[in-house]
Amino acid sequence: MDGALTLQLLLNALALGAAYGLVALGFALVIGATGAVNFAQGDLVMAGGFLTVALASLLPVDGLLLLPLVVLAMAGLGLAVCAVAYLPFRNAPPVSVFVSTIAIGIMLQNGANGLFGAAPRAGPPLLSGGGEPGGLDLDRQSLAVIAAAVLLAGGTWLMLYRTQLGRRMRATAQDPEMARAMGVNTTRTIALTFALATALAGAAGLLLSNRYFVTPVEGSNLMLKAYIAVVVGGWGRIGGALAGALLVAGFEVIVSAVLSYPVAEAGLYICVLLLLLLRPQGLFGEALGRRV
Amino acid sequence: MNRIAAIATAAAIVSGLAAGPAAAEEAKKATFPVLVPITGFLALEGTAQRNGAVLALDEGAEGVSVAYEVQDTGTSPEVAVNALLRALSRDEVSAVAASIFGTQMLAMMPVAAEAGVPLLTVSGTAKLTELDNPWVFRFFPTDAVVKVAQARYIVEELSRKRPAILYQTTAYGQSGRGHLVAAFEKLGAEVVYEEGLAPDVRDMLPALSKALAANPDVLVLHLHSGPTALFVRQAKANGTDLPIVAGSAMHQPTTAALLEPAELAGVCAESGSSPVSVGSPEMDAFAQAYRARFDAEPDAFALGQYDAMRMALSAIADGAATPKALRDKLASMVYEGLAMTYKSDGTGNMAHDAVIVCYDGESRIPRIAARYENVDGAR
Question: Which of A124, B77, B219, B279 would bridge with A56, disulfide CB 3.0–4.6 Å?
């Protein structure tokens, strides 16, 4: 394997891992805030991808310019998901939220299928121009995806650790009863967490939609990748989710390049099983004292 | 005759006159449930299948009163079977436009056999016509036809003898891979590399780099729509100038729409037909009617199901009044469809021709580069 190819493979792994990272980050945020698993997270990524496709048909500009619109619209969708699929069931057994978010995911799938059809669709490139066959454009797109994901993840980290809202979110995640006793409006905080998680899912959908296309049925696979990333990084741990996503993507790309795709897929699940056996708290430890 | 009887008689005469020819020769009634996957992972192909069936049934046939209802079978066999049972319980069914999803077909076939109703499908699953079920008719060429055509085009027309094969790890992919390997062996070509890809693989660079390392002279794909487009894009981005001869997914206009015309240069695909390529006036009329009705481009699945329903309507118009008569007629007649001439091989395989289409790098509409008729010698 020559140096240029190795570099391109690493870049691809990083770009894919960065997009997976945004999915896993949103997934971990909801786990942290509510203790519940949002099984619609993958389908929300898909919804973000289709929203990008729809916006691009109205505003034929670079994906980067559409990103704020997608993030805002998806944040609104996140509030709706919270209102419909979480708040009515917050005091019910956790399985109720599992089922309600699965239902939301199926509705999103069928909605996308009805509105856009079943065919794969391509979103706009994050940055247009400068693309010539021969690898340069892929590099440019990969770098743009990585940069956008780093900015979004960094912004999320700053918001969580450097703002009052972030402190409230973390307080609600650590001990909702105590947070409520201290005057935090936990319902509003949880709703904002859903909005943030869904906005990140939408951003991931935009980043993935050009290079890897978007179809109504891809959500479950993305959901699985996010789930694995969170297990690897530590249940509910924000930084761990990002690291887990990068590890998952890196493992997939590198092992499939050296051996084969089936080996990479089987190897990934064997590693996850071993991890669960030997270090069930994940590589970086659990953020929560309980596992859903 | 009292007054009331006279009025009744007059009314009967008037209504008889009004009914005219209908009373003299009542239109044959034909009911066709359209049971196809409109949601789920085969929704793209299932929607095309639905559209083809609906277009044909809306056109109707002289002397035949057509009724149909579309039901989404999703992705599970039990949903398909339930849809079939519901349809059979409600109406006297003439034939069913049945799912492209082979797993659903396998579940529906015993039910259809018991009820004595023909299933008309474009499913490619080989087993459907290997089970001695006389009620199933397939209007899309099997891998035994299209994969042989694909291999022949590569060896005979492109003079390439070192193919690298990338296939899907699904049943669809493995069936195609088996036929390709056998066809290449028969043609004296050496397969230098092959790898199975799961449908959710996103990064195609690992597969491309390993395939190129084996020094092939052609890249042969048998992948679903999205993966085909991803692979072609990756190959072009890496400056690969080897010809790419893909499976039927590449002929679908929705697949071509994912790529820039320049990325399609040197890319070919096998298919049963290509309705968007320049063809006969009848084919162009079909494509225009399809676009007008569904705001989409037709593909070979749509055309195959369209031909299937037109053949069934033709048989009913010709006197096949019962499902059994229709089955016998379908099993024995030769029908000139838009895509090709259909004739059963005795097991329900009706399609025996294939085409190879190629893109010129300037548009997303391929031209037909080669036609292979009666590939399996069954017609």
Answer: A124
